[in-house]
Design goal:
Length: 514
Amino acid sequence: MDNIGRVQQVKGEICIVTDLEAIGLGNVVTFSSGARGMVLGFHHAEAEIALFGSYIDVKKGDLVRVTAPQLSTRAGLEMLGRVISPLGEPIDGKGEIRYSSDTLYPIEAIARPVYQRKIIDRPLQTGYIAIDSQIPIGLGQRELLLGEKNSGQSDLAIDIICNQARLNTNLICVYVAIDAEAAASKRRIERLEKQGGLERTVVIMGRTSETASLNYIAPMVGTTIAEYFTTQGKDVLIVYDNLTSHAKVYRQMSLLLERPASREAYPGDVFYLHSRLLERAGAFSDDVGGGTITALPVVETQSEEATDYITTNLMSITDGHILFRQALANRGAQPPIDSGFSVSRIGSRAQSPLIKVLSEKLKGLLIRYNEIVEFMSFGAELSDEAQAIYDIGLRADDLFHQAHDDYYSNIEESVLMYIVVSEVIKKWGESQIEDVRVALLKFIRSKPYDTILNSTILTMPYDHAAIVLKECLDDFLKHPDTPEPQKKRERLVAELETLSGILQSDQEILNDKN
């Protein structure tokens, strides 16, 4: 006899079903109306089912049948460049996706054990010098992007995906939108398409107009697709935009299920929900394909303090975080990253030798610069040494300013960092830095330095690489298109001459007395 149950109650997007004898957690069910759902829990002899579609079509007394042991999705290279729903259905108007295989992959999978993983030792090129130098991310790392709403973390994640196409890194990208507004989603997909990033990207679109259950499963579907590509030896970048919304839709479902509420009304297992999701990322051994999943979960904080429940949960799960500040964005900083409060726990060991040394030198300089800026807020005067560091730091801030369409390779980042740590940047005034940046990038992208500055310089000992970089900057200074180094201002020269005259007069007076 068929295992058939009946709907006893419909509570919004949740319905209660009885008389199903052989049923388990995560089973997929189909209703007599054609609607589908997934088993989320049990209460005595009743099964609690989340509906994938509108609850209007489901009524008390409808028949229910288990149709699959768990929710699964297809995966393949045919998905690249497509936008799909959390159920795997194409929603971009480009027709059906014709897969080469009918294999289905369960969306809930246990994270790979330690013996199937390997050390994270290769860097992710984000194209952003502020990240690649100060907060490096390794392939297989989980780096949290956190900040207040509209602080720029989602836009930066999209730019990082676009930069993979621009830098020809050969990464496959998965972008998961969760409970997203239609206008914002459309704008980001159009940007991916315009910049060439969509060709190597799978977009899973969970929308605000859809049920909470579809938004709930969206990140699991994206991770399953990413895991498929790792078994083919591919490096995958997955962006979850955003897990704050994911936690909220899970809270909505849990409240309908009348589960006990914890802090901020979230269910007690929300930490486990996100930890089991993010544990599926990593760098995997050759025995299981040898690929990597680099996860960039986005989270919206309630304030600049970043102390709310979901944010602190995710900070404890991930391998580091990048903090975006609305105040920095309001001042025109791009990207608006607070590097002092950002951290990457394992990314530095994935950096190339040259980038690592330059980053350490630059980090020390910027730390001292920020201390001096804070010191100056009290109206204190600076020593000559502090003034020199302040001047360099001020120019470095302008040099590292990046608009959305700006992106750098690791070699270009090395040159930009070297011009700062070598203090050559002091030759130009603050108002000239943008022109210097444009001219320098044009110079190193043209012959002969487009071939001299190749990937081998990244693995050289620092002393040897510094010689090549110094020769490059010496030639740049001689180039006719290079902005003229700023000369001392006449007022400053006059002040120095006056000071010298006063000191000389004092010395003569002392000599006369002696």
